[in-house]
């Protein structure tokens, strides 16, 4: 049985207050057909915590597994956060903001220092897209290298302490 098959009992998988509490007055049912504007998941007035988390993770060039490993949480926990099934506690929220280079306030409300709304009419030149792709790959490699350095330092410390 793999880690993703286990129930998520981590302390950081706190239930969303809106789902755990009394009826949510923010949710309204609509019978109107969806328009193109309704499908813009990242509009400032429509984005949820999970949307902002997903967008900032992708902008940082990380996949879910990498971010979960860097935060020390299960992949299932991160997936629940991104799908607005639960929310992180304050300590993980602070770590998220630091790792993703956005403010806690932006993650929670969409206000403050964070990602800008995408500009739909702006096309990047092919060279700029290639550079951005390279930068994202390098950032991901640096994260992996940082993790590896930590492991090697830990091994070295244990070897040195055993030798003394």
Rg (CA only)? 19 Å
Write down the oligomeric state: single chain
Q: What's the pLDDT, averaged over the residues?
A: 74
Q: SSE string, helix = H, strand = E?
A: EHHHHEHHH
Per CATH, what is the topology of the largest domain? Answer: 434 Repressor (Amino-terminal Domain)
Task: Specify the biggest β-sheet.
Answer: 2 strands, antiparallel
Strand fraction band? Answer: under 5%
CA-based shape: globular
Provide the CATH top-level class of the largest domain: Mainly Alpha
Helix content: 40-55%
Q: Helical segment tally?
A: 7
Low-confidence stretches: 1-7, 13-41
Work out the count of structural domains.
Answer: 2
Tally of strands: 2
Ends distance: 40 Å
Supply the key terms.
164 residues; mainly alpha; 434 Repressor (Amino-terminal Domain); two-stranded antiparallel sheet; 52% helix; globular
Question: Can you characterise this structure?
Answer:
It contains seven helices and two strands. It folds into two domains: 40-113, 434 Repressor (Amino-terminal Domain) (Orthogonal Bundle); 123-164. The protein is mostly helical and 164 residues long. It has a two-stranded antiparallel sheet with strand order 1-2. Residues 1-7 and 13-41 have low confidence and may be disordered.
């Amino acid at each position: 049985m793999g880690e993703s098959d286990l129930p998520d009992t981590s302390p950081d998988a706190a239930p969303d207050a809106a789902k755990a509490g009394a009826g949510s007055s923010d949710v309204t049912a609509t019978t109107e057909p969806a328009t193109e504007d309704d499908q813009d998941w990242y509009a400032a007035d429509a984005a949820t915590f999970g949307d902002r988390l997903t967008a900032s993770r992708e902008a940082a060039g990380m996949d879910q597994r990498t971010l979960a490993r860097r935060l020390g949480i299960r992949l299932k926990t991160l997936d629940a956060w991104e799908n607005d099934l639960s929310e992180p506690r304050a300590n993980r929220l602070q770590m998220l903001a630091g790792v993703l280079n956005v403010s806690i306030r932006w993650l929670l409300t969409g206000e403050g220092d964070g990602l800008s709304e995408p500009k739909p009419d702006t096309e990047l030149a092919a060279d700029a897209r290639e550079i951005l792709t390279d930068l994202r790959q390098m950032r991901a490699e640096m994260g992996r290298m940082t993790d590896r350095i930590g492991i090697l330092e830990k091994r070295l410390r244990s070897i040195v302490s055993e030798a003394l």
